[in-house]
Amino acid sequence: MNILSTLATHMEMTEAIKNYVQEKLMSLEKFTERYSTCEVSAEVGKTSEHHQKGKIFRAEFMMTIPGVTLRAEAVEEDLYAAIDAAKDDLKRQLIEHKERLDERKG
């Protein structure tokens, strides 16, 4: 799996956040082993500069595998919760895509 970029919007990208995003994305690698290429870009941050509470943290992942582009986005009250939720959504999409491919093979 090739992580193309990790961006932050309306906040500073710390090394801890970058490492956490990479760790979560790499946990999906076992679901992408069957593909010749897999490229991922990640964007995390605040939904707005002026809001201070509520669901203000956002994580978005875009994964390109042969034949399809998967996109997962989550908005939560905590940045790490948003990253986890987006990762879980991307995992769900990967599993569904694999099942569709397996059904076609018969």
Describe, in plain words, how this protein is organized in 3D:
With 106 residues, the protein is α+β, with helices and mostly antiparallel strands. It has a single domain (2-105), classed as 2-Layer Sandwich (Double Stranded RNA Binding Domain). Helix content is 37%, strand content 32%. The chain has two helices and four strands; from the N terminus they run E-H-E-E-E-H. It has a four-stranded mixed β-sheet with strand order 1-2-3-4. A hairpin with a 2-residue loop joins strand 3 and strand 4 (68-76). Helix 1 (15-26) packs parallel to helix 2 (79-105). The mean pLDDT is 94.
Overview in brief:
Helices cover 37% and strands 32% of the residues. It is α+β, with helices and mostly antiparallel strands.
Structural class, from helix and strand content? alpha+beta
| CATH topology type | Double Stranded RNA Binding Domain
User: Which sequence of SSEs, written as H and E, runs from N to C?
Assistant: EHEEEH
Count of spatially separate domains: 1
Our estimate of the beta-strand percent is 25-35%
Gyration radius (Cα, Å) is: 15 Å
Major sheet, described briefly? 4 strands, mixed
Distance between the termini: 28 Å
β-strand number: 4
Q: Overall 3D geometry? A: elongated
CATH class: Alpha Beta
Q: List the total number of helices.
A: 2
Oligomeric state of shown chains = single chain
Tell me the name of the CATH homologous superfamily.
Answer: Ribosome hibernation promotion factor-like
